[in-house]
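Q: I'm writing up a methods section and want to include an example of the input and output format. Could you take the sequence below and give the corresponding predicted structure tokens, formatted cleanly so I can copy it straight into the document?
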Amino acid sequence: MQDETLPQLLLVNARGTFSRKPAIREKEFGIWQEYRWADALKRVKAFALGLVALGFKRGETLALLSDNRPEVYWAILAIQAIGGVPVPIYQDAPAKEVGYIIDHSDASFVFAQDQEQVDKVLELKEVLPRLKQIIYEDPKGMRHYQDALLRSFTAVEGLGRRLEQEQPGLFEALVEAGRREDVALLCYTSGTTGLPKGVVLLHRNLITVARNFLATKGCLAGDAVLAYLPPAWIGEILWSLAVATVAPLTVNCPEGPETVQGDLREVGPHLFFAPPRIWENLASQVQVRMEDAGFVKRRFYRWFLPIGHEAALRKMQGRPVPLWLKFLSLLGEVLVYGPIRDQLGLARVKSAYTGGAAIGPEIFMLFRSIGINVKQAYGQTECSALACLQQDDQVKLETVGRPVANTEVRISDEGEVLIRSSGLFAGYYKNPTATALALKEGWLHTGDAGLLGEDGHLVCLDRAGDLATLVDGTQFAPQMIENKLKFSPYIKEAVVIGQGRPYVAALIDIDEENVGKWAEKRRVSYTTYADLSQKPEVCELVHWEIERVNRDLSSATRIRRYLLLHKELDPDDEEMTRTRKVRRRFVTKKYSGLIEALYAGLEEVPVLAEVTYQDGRKATIETRLKIRALEKMAEVGRS
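A: Here is the clean output for your methods example:
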């Protein structure tokens, strides 16, 4: 074919040597259902022609609200096959956010997974004048829904099969008409600094970036991958759709978000990608489970982990590993590393990646120490998710690797990371002003501050606007300190502040699950999250963790004062993005009173906290947050 699109590559896979190979697997009612590439093509064709029968036209947009189901990936390929534009939306987004994206993207059709997602869209239909059809996949709970906009996924497929009988070859003709410069995806950014923007990506962008990744030999045809990240995130689209179609790979969909850990163990993927938040959660699991393990297992872990760390560090630095260290590493593999990887579901992983945000060095090295080949990647939605990548023999703790094929990276005079590649987006949808600011002379202005080493490796410091300077002129990257704090299993999130201030301070979110278990073991009673966070024992526990971080920082950048927040930072409260990135400017504005109290020398500060109960009721309670200064104190919290 002269032009290449993802549906055209689907045809190649389904009619070539991979036709009978597994394309996608889904766990349903505890049993894995397998669909081969030939099966996937039949489902894509049926749904695509069903959309045509319903009046969906080339150039129209279709919004998708779904967890990781085969149907959502088939729907994306089907929309692309007939010249439409898919617009995935985060499935946990509230109705207001969903409405904004549906309206802004001019979506006339919506794919909604289940009753919950359908209800969101029905709630908004009066303010969505372009909406023509809502297609749902799971009929559970929808027997009595009578709205004329509703139609089931299977019903649409039925329409498609009838149209295929009436007009054989129509689907193939529509796919053949596709061009590599056609729009493949309208992907909305996470909105770290404001409203999300619609990033227009072409088939050429996704396919070339997928091939750039495959050129690094990060995976092989037929390898298994677990599709568990939100389909609205560009990283998930790259791995589970673009790379999976180009390679091709076998995509595995978990039964549900709550079963991911167990399904991960069953699948045993060869390729695994996770943003730092997932790696942080896995690290917390390892640390907490080892604390709860028996004496022998706990001693083995504490003894062999430094051995694994030393061996991994030597390999990364290109230094020889002495025989005695190799022998102890093999022993650690049998007693510690292998069992941990098996428990995590990463026993078969050949390559693991982290990206989407900076990862703490301690977390990164923890997984390298237990034998997981984790590497860092760097990119943005605007460059189809991937610009730089560490390769097996080029893993450096402080960098995100070298640019991948067909990609250039340079640093501007102001220290900003600039990218030029075949993966660069076509622009922001209906936003020429933002497009002109981001794309200048063919270079993407990322907004990230960074450095390029002599070896070509990129060092990302932080968002350019987030780098901070104390009043004495000391510069520091808040994100680096935050990542060190989040290595603790007891700290879920941290916001480090200090711009224009005399010293560094921090707002801390405790990890309710891990801290709650810790408190129960020590018979510390509590009622709510706010109550738990202000317990003296918990304050001392977190205090010790901050002392640990401070020991690795220069004296000027050490945290001097902090407080434990009364609530978790939450995307629904606009404090975080849907990809779990802190919206720093919003948080510092919202909690400006708490921040001022940190620098006013107060010992506590009153707050009004809104509590939402499980039945949806809300109540406002008043509490007082303790402000702690970093002074030497007994390590009571670790006993």
